[in-house]
């Protein structure tokens, strides 16, 4: 087979290259006895011309290290024909970080979760190398590989051709590395031939990491002279050497001698947000300003400890990845979310955090399994807000044809902006779904709150009825005491207030806002993704044509036709986004804002009514002492009246009441006292009590018997 090469235990095809560097290439291979996939690194003329001790140093370092975030070496073998050494390593099918960033969809940097994983994995690998006192000396996106293309893929450091052992205080003299990622002092010596810089320590890796992290976060290099660093090395050297503390980027526009503009933040095209964005910027600045490995590890560990909690903020229709150290309470999440939102001067009002249709208490712990399609709903954290729209790049204009090289670069930029538009439309589609889901969840919480309020008010009425029963009974007996009058007044007042809060609840039910949201055109996101993919195919074709240096008339005609298609795709997507999607989302946002503002007002009113009802019930329950006082005073009044009646009976020598006398007296009282008549009708036991006392005691105190029944 043409291009087939073999070593003692492995084979590979020279036509199946995985990557290429300054000293050699890496090919896809397999183990002869098992067929297991491997990567085989061979050395070119430059690599073979290195001194043998440098060659062996790479082998020794690879044999000495083993870590999940470092590409594992399996063996060093000899190629059968040339007898030259080859390195057999684990295969990483996800490509290098450089390859990933070259893809149009990552032209403005990695997504947040991917960048967080990159920083975490690379830091873990660097921590291991520092423990082994190994310095890499050529850290760059091309030397960081992705294990595979799965969501759980690991990033791994590779290519230890320039690596050596070096303790923390030692220095080295030799020059290694790639110039865009070189430490400023090494750049002065290696590129600008400044002989003053003569020695460097292990922290040169930290500068390379800073540039790599910036590149990964933004899709571009941090220091960009006019025409690029390779064509304008003097300005590149000036940018890195004269960088102000805290600055993480510099750009020169218009001319090679133009003004240098410094920046301390990531560019607008970078979609990182909030606390995570600030933390990444601070990490890059710390590494560039010059820090120890321990300082780097502490700051990186802080970023690694951040967990994404997804929050949908109703006032701005914004889906937020809030970064927070878990475990944490809902109250802490609210403070972290506030930091991500526009500042408001209005007084703090009641707000609500809702998840899966349940209201989250401020002291509760944050759920750790939120997702982009199942976020926590934030209602009332801010009152009003404009629709949040991520910064979206506009495709460059495609002018007349100049060259295949320029068109290929232009095609990559066009594809990148089209994918950026697609990502924005994906976000708008996502928040459209989240707004509908949030409305449903908020309505569930509101309806539950109204149902609980109804139950609370019913319990209040039961408490009031108990006190009212006592008042009605005692008033019906023509008893008038100070406590009874107070009790009567309090009950009447509480009944009026209870009626008011009940009417307020009913009015809220009758005025519930109706959800009526506009929808994006059906399939708009799918169509935009299709166009972006078709544009990407054109870019791939142009790259192939550029690599092949094909300039036949047929190829050139095809190239120009693809330019026209690319221009059409850009025009179509800009039209769909600017004229249809975004204006519709603005109108939709107005309706969602009005709806959520109305339902927020309702929920705040429900809580106010609930608090009023709770206070009324508390006031009602506090009547128990007044109830006892009213009963006691009424009993004393009855006893006093009873003694007076007995005295009058004794003076007229009526003597003890017989059964017939008791019945006659009861009939008389029924005619004279309608209130007592009602009491007797409700409590037939009164006659039995009177009769029983007359039979057993030959006498009966009628007032005492009636009072006993009334108060028990």
From TrEMBL:
User: Any idea which positions bind ATP?
Assistant: 41
Gene3D superfamilies found in the cross-reference section = 1.20.1270.420, Phosphorylase Kinase, domain 1, Transferase(Phosphotransferase) domain 1
Coiled-coil region:
428-459
Protein kinase domain segment(s): 12-297
Q: Which UniProt keywords apply?
A: ATP-binding, Coiled coil, Cytoplasm, Kinase, Nucleotide-binding, Serine/threonine-protein kinase, Transferase
GO CC field: cytoplasm
Gene Ontology biological-process annotations: positive regulation of gene expression; positive regulation of innate immune response; positive regulation of signal transduction; response to stress
The question of whether Nucleotide-binding is a record keyword is answered with: yes
InterPro entries in UniProt = IKK, Kinase-like_dom_sf, Prot_kinase_dom, Protein_kinase_ATP_BS, TBK1_CC1
Return one GO MF term: protein serine/threonine kinase activity
A UniProt-annotated Pfam family:
TBK1_CCD1
Asked whether the UniProt record includes Kinase among its keywords, one would answer yes
Q: Where in the cell is it found?
A: Cytoplasm
Q: What is its main location?
A: cytoplasm
Q: What is this protein called?
A: Protein kinase domain-containing protein
Tell me what organism the protein belongs to: Oikopleura dioica
